[in-house]
Design goal:
Blueprint: H1 8-28, H2 31-37, E1 42-43, E2 46-47, H3 48-69
Antiparallel strand pairs: 1-2
Helix pairs in contact: 1-3
């Protein structure tokens, strides 16, 4: 079996990390976890569920951008 060129290894790791981020996205926006934040509470006048969705989405976008730009 020929050795894998060094250029393919970072791409493979990046793909695995992006797969992890997509699984994390699926877990964070799935019903059981969303139900935890779905109540009448407010933070600074913003419903807790809306704040959770916004912050989780921003964190996933930033994490994905960071993973794509780094080697």
């Amino acid at each position: 079996m020929p050795p894998i060129p060094s250029q393919e290894r970072p791409e493979q790791r990046r793909g695995q990390r992006l797969l992890f981020v997509s699984l994390l996205f699926g877990i964070l926006f799935n019903f059981p976890l969303l139900a935890v934040f779905d109540h009448d509470g407010r933070v600074g006048g913003i419903p807790v569920l809306y704040l959770y969705v916004l912050l989780a989405w921003c964190a996933l976008v930033l994490l994905t951008g960071w993973l794509v730009r780094t080697k």
